[in-house]
Design goal:
It is built from one helix and ten strands, in the order ββββαββββββ. It is mainly beta and 127 residues long. It has one domain: Immunoglobulin-like (Sandwich). The strands form three sheets. The chain has a five-stranded mixed β-sheet with strand order 1-2-7-9-8, with no helix packed on it. The protein has a three-stranded antiparallel β-sheet with strand order 5-4-10. A two-stranded antiparallel ribbon has the order 3-6.
Length: 127
């Protein structure tokens, strides 16, 4: 299970980040996890970002979510532990005004089976 272990708000998006860690014993799929602030949790306009990388995070590994630009992928921390880096590619701060950052995890997912013909889902043309 992924947990937030650090939040570093900053006006410079390339220095602003959230650190997650897999505190469970099993690998965790990163895709579908959502970071959001209190405003978004209350249904108002707030900071929200969905993590869409299709990658599995090993037990004890970190995920560094940086607001600024870069290339997503695996790297090593200074102590040699693996860290997956996610760059949101935003030009401004996401967390600077947030009182709290929340992490929502997908509890279940199911692939949608589409019919062979997409026209089966389309309404008939009116004529």
């Amino acid at each position: 299970m992924l947990r937030i272990v650090a939040v570093e708000p900053c006006p410079d998006p390339n220095r602003e980040f959230v650190v997650l860690q897999n505190r469970g014993f099993m690998m965790v799929d990163l895709r579908g996890h959502v970071l959001h602030d209190d405003k978004a949790a209350e249904g108002a306009r707030g900071a929200v970002c969905m993590l869409t990388d299709d990658v599995r995070i090993p037990s004890s590994a970190y995920v560094l979510v940086t607001t600024g630009k870069g290339t997503n992928g695996w790297a090593r921390c200074s102590d040699g532990s693996p860290v997956y880096q996610v760059f949101l590619g935003l030009a401004g701060s996401l967390w600077l005004g947030a009182a709290t950052v929340h992490l929502a995890a997908p509890s279940h997912k199911k692939n949608v089976c589409l019919p062979e013909s997409a026209s089966a889902l389309s309404p008939a043309p009116e004529g």
